[in-house]
TrEMBL record:
<dbReference type="Pfam" id="PF01926">
    <property type="entry name" value="MMR_HSR1"/>
</dbReference>
<dbReference type="InterPro" id="IPR030378">
    <property type="entry name" value="G_CP_dom"/>
</dbReference>
<feature type="domain" description="CP-type G">
    <location>
        <begin position="65"/>
        <end position="232"/>
    </location>
</feature>
<dbReference type="GO" id="GO:0005525">
    <property type="term" value="F:GTP binding"/>
</dbReference>
<dbReference type="InterPro" id="IPR050896">
    <property type="entry name" value="Mito_lipid_metab_GTPase"/>
</dbReference>
<protein>
    <submittedName>
        <fullName>Ribosome biogenesis GTPase YqeH [Lactobacillus sp.]</fullName>
    </submittedName>
</protein>
<dbReference type="InterPro" id="IPR006073">
    <property type="entry name" value="GTP-bd"/>
</dbReference>
<dbReference type="InterPro" id="IPR027417">
    <property type="entry name" value="P-loop_NTPase"/>
</dbReference>
<dbReference type="InterPro" id="IPR048422">
    <property type="entry name" value="NOA1/YqeH-like_C"/>
</dbReference>
<dbReference type="Pfam" id="PF21516">
    <property type="entry name" value="YqeH-like_C"/>
</dbReference>
<dbReference type="InterPro" id="IPR019988">
    <property type="entry name" value="GTP-bd_ribosome_bgen_YqeH"/>
</dbReference>
Length: 377
């Protein structure tokens, strides 16, 4: 594409279309571009988005966290409402460090996506308050909290009403880390208002939106889908293919109760493990995808058990991924109240107060504790 030609953008991820560098964002083979331009009815997608949409393949591109943050920093100078989308199932992995600094004085509407995967008995008013407390701890002060399921379309009209209430005739910037369902949510909003479906590329793989995508609003302003900040600490970066589905539940999770006492280990598939070192109350409630295999054993036998059964009795990982799977790294904690031991991007185990535990996760994946989201103890 020559300099004299008008710059074209991928309708899926927002990247500028180019035909010279296959490893860079927006790459499209010249032949495919020519074919798209010749057919007025054909939407223009870069090669990466085309493969995502038709083959569910991910093609890495040369964008860095600094690139993403530079794009987000433009929000500071805008007069807009910031819609901050988080994955309720992976709230800690959804935190954008320094978000308040990025957005300046613009108001933030906190939107908890994927609320449909949480147990129905969890009171939503209590969940909203818990979410506020979690983001407050990171210096983020939302004007309000909304819950939705972009996939199922739950409470979309309520969310739109809140957006109208707080945007007050201004632009809307939608922000979030990768894989929280941000683009899916915008697609749902577009579909509700125009009938167009799946306009923006979406995927369970991290880093789908590569540049700002602007959607015009009826009053002349716009809704802007920004690229997601990539958190390398998420489980999604060490799982591939079908294994990745188990790190992002698609249905309401069913909590599983275990009597976890001293010297016992619980494996969460082959991707995480929890050791109970010392507790006065044997207990544990597991919140992970319903299809993830769980197995309890003695801590003294845990390492041998893992080496013998990973990829077979305890999965994921599966197949060829077993040989290249990162080693599990140990993180030790002592709880002072009923707490969640969180394996970032996979789920959590709620344990009693005054319990010393060790959480293991693949090298590079975060394990942390937080006040229990659902306190059943």
């Amino acid at each position: 594409m020559s300099e004299a030609q008008e710059t074209l953008y991928c309708i899926g991820c927002g990247a500028a279309i180019q035909t010279t560098d296959p490893k860079a964002a927006g790459y499209t083979p010249a032949s495919a571009l020519k074919k798209s331009l010749a057919d007025d009815t054909q939407d223009l997608y870069c090669q990466r988005c085309f493969r995502l949409r038709h083959y569910n393949e991910i093609v890495p591109v040369g964008l860095t966290d600094d690139d993403f943050r530079h794009l987000l920093a433009t929000i500071r100078d805008a007069d807009a409402l910031v819609v901050y989308v988080v994955d309720i199932f992976d709230l800690n992995g959804s935190i954008i460090p320094g978000l308040q600094r990025f957005v300046g004085d613009n108001p933030i509407l906190l939107v908890g996506n994927k609320e449909d995967v949480l147990p129905r008995q969890l009171r939503r008013t209590k969940l909203k308050e818990w979410m506020k407390q979690q983001v407050f701890a990171h210096g983020i002060k939302p004007v309000d909290v909304a819950l939705t399921s972009a996939k199922r379309g739950n409470a979309i009209d309520d969310l739109l009403a809140l957006i109208e209430k707080y945007r007050r005739g201004r632009d809307v910037y939608v922000v979030g880390v990768t894989n929280v369902g941000k683009s899916t949510l915008i697609n749902r909003i577009i579909a509700n208002n125009t009938g167009l479906k799946d306009l923006i590329t979406t995927s369970r793989f991290p880093g789908t939106t590569l540049d700002k995508i602007e959607i015009p609003l009826d009053d002349g302003h716009k809704m802007v889908d920004t690229p997601g900040i990539i958190h390398q600490e998420q489980m999604a970066h060490v799982l591939t293919g079908d294994d990745l589905k188990l790190a992002s539940p698609q249905k309401e999770i069913r909590p599983k109760n275990y009597q976890l006492g001293n010297g016992q280990t619980l494996f969460l598939g082959g991707v995480a493990r929890l050791d109970i070192i010392d507790t006065v109350k044997p207990a544990g409630v597991v919140y992970v995808d319903n299809n993830l295999t769980l197995h309890r054993t003695k801590t003294e036998n845990a390492e041998n058990f893992y080496e013998k059964h990973v990829g077979e009795l305890i999965t994921p990982p599966t197949g060829d991924a077993v040989a290249d799977f990162p080693p599990l790294v140990r993180h030790e904690f002592k709880t002072t109240a009923v707490s969640d031991v969180v394996f970032e991007g996979l789920g959590w185990v709620t344990v009693p107060a005054d319990t010393r535990v060790a959480g293991w996760a693949p090298q590079g994946v975060d394990v942390l504790t937080r006040p229990a989201m659902i306190n059943r103890q």
